[in-house]
Amino acid sequence: MEKLNFTSEVMVFESRFELPKEIEELLVMASEAAKNAYSPYSHFKVGAAILLNNGVIITGNNQENAAYPSGLCAERTAAFYASSQYPDVPFSRIAISSHSALKQTTEPVTPCGGCRQALIEFEQKFNQKIEIILSGDVGKVYIFKSVADLLPFSFHSGYLPK
Ligand SMILES: [Zn+2]
Question: What is the Cα–Cα distance from 34 to 55, expressed in whole angstroms?
Answer without folding.
Answer: 21
